[in-house]
Write a structure and sequence with these properties.
- The chain is an alpha/beta fold and about 425 residues long.
- It folds into two domains: about 10-80 and about 115-190 and about 300-385, FAD/NAD(P)-binding domain (3-Layer(bba) Sandwich), CATH 3.50.50.60; about 195-295, D-Amino Acid Oxidase, Chain A, domain 2.
- Helices cover about 35% and strands about 25% of the residues.
- The longest helix is centred in the C-terminal third of the chain and has 30 residues, at about 350-380.
């Protein structure tokens, strides 16, 4: 796909936020001949966290936005270390006693994606390389926006600068300023909900991990389930590093810290998992620097748009990571939204709300279902609720849990959105 000279449509788009969703949308809009500018609060495009996984649905969305995105993903992706684990998403195991296999969940699509993880920052660099440098503006933290009599939107940034556009997209993450303004909330934290869980995150050199738990457990993705917690390990950096996330239920009440990330909590982590099985304890003993992350998600927003302002990604539907599906939903958003804005029925700025109405109708139910089912998945992994003593039942649930997310036909989703645009 050649990059068009962006003069195809008589309206301009301002994207606030240069994460995966914002950049993917910018790439998609440029292919539709739509003029776009990106405003990022940080001094450069940057992602926090290490590994990020994408299911078959997300990889399909990448291809439909721009085959170069999928190519970059394939170049960067780390797969399981054993050939026979190629299709495996996660091996779910008992976290107490012996690491008995509870369920081997496989993606089973034509791509045989398995748990293909990429390093967030490197993937973002690849996305950034697909857009012209001059459309990205850094150090731009949105203060407010207003609609002028002309219908144009004026964006005001904290540094005093202003920008103008016909369309404003909030791709500014879980603490979204665009969402706060759009929904008329008191603070960027309104509508966010502490999920009762926190997670320790860290990285381990793979040779050390292999020494500690053996090749099979170290080099392939594993999730250890236990009472009130679960521990996820998988290879990143083309197998040189093990990514570890250890989730724990908080005993009581809200998150009482000002910060969502607390540095160097290794001692707390070892105490939290002291009575777990040998593989879990062996892995956690190797984590020198474990940070603790509070897990928040988003209560269902009543709408993803008003007028010519719209939300994508975490700004619209921040989720817990329990189904490895959050970033994939941002890519689905980017594909559907760029396709609707590029559609021949979207001729001018006055047609934008109809495009957003179709986007909202198609994307909101599915993305919000990902949020709610991710929360439920977290409860299943921590063996909460009734029948949780029956690991066979847990295994059955896990084998079914992801299908509706992965088996989504993105072309059909696009057709449904187009049909709504015609009404």
């Amino acid at each position: 796909m050649a990059h068009h000279d962006s003069t195809g449509k008589p309206f301009t788009v301002a994207i606030v936020g240069g994460g995966i969703g914002g950049l993917a949308l910018a790439i998609g809009l440029r292919h539709q001949g739509i003029s776009v500018q990106i405003y990022e609060a940080a001094p450069a495009f940057a992602e926090i966290g290490a590994g990020i996984a994408f299911g078959p649905n997300a990889i399909s969305a990448m291809y439909l936005i721009d085959p170069a995105i999928r190519d970059a993903f394939r170049r960067l992706a780390t797969k399981n270390g054993f050939d026979e684990e190629d299709e495996t998403w996660i091996n779910f195991r008992s976290g107490f006693g012996e690491p008995t296999l509870i369920a081997k969940v496989q993606t089973g699509d034509q791509e045989k994606t398995g748990l293909s993880s990429v390093h967030r920052a490197r993937f973002l660099d690849e996305l950034a390389s697909l857009i012209p440098k001059d459309i990205a503006h850094f150090g731009k933290r949105l203060l407010s926006f207003q609609e002028e009599a002309s219908g144009k939107l004026t964006l005001v940034f904290e540094d005093g600068e202003t920008a103008f556009a016909d369309v404003l997209v909030g791709a500014d993450g879980v603490r979204s300023r665009v969402r706060q303004l759009l929904l008329g909330k008191e603070s960027v934290l309104d509508g966010l909900s502490f999920t009762g869980k926190y997670a320790y995150r860290g990285l381990i050199a793979m040779d050390k991990a292999r020494e500690a738990v053996g090749d099979e457990l170290a080099m392939n993705s594993q999730m250890y389930l236990g009472k009130d917690g679960h521990v996820l390990t998988y290879p990143i950096d083309h197998g040189k590093t093990m990514n570890v996330v250890a989730f724990k239920n908080k005993e009581d009440g809200p998150w009482e810290h000002d910060h969502w990330v607390l540095k160097s909590k290794g001692e707390d982590m070892r105490r939290d998992f002291a009575n777990w099985g040998t593989p879990v304890r062996s892995v956690l003993d190797l984590m020198v620097d474990a940070d603790m992350w509070a897990l928040f998600d988003m209560l269902p927003a009543p709408t993803y748009y008003k007028g010519n302002v719209v939300l994508v990604g975490d700004a619209a539907h921040a989720s817990t990571p329990h189904q490895g599906a959050g970033a994939g939903q941002a890519l689905e958003d980017a594909f559907i939204l760029s396709m609707l804005l590029g559609d021949k029925k979207t001729r001018c700025a006055g047609d934008i709300p109809a495009a957003f109405r179709a986007y909202d109708a198609i994307r909101r139910p599915r993305s919000q279902k990902v949020v709610s089912t991710s929360r439920t998945a977290g409860a299943t992994y921590a063996l909460q609720g009734e029948a949780r003593d029956n690991l066979d039942e847990v295994g059955e649930e896990l084998l079914q849990r992801y299908k509706w997310i992965w088996d989504e036909d993105m072309q059909v989703q696009a057709e449904h959105a187009r049909a709504l645009l015609g009404q």
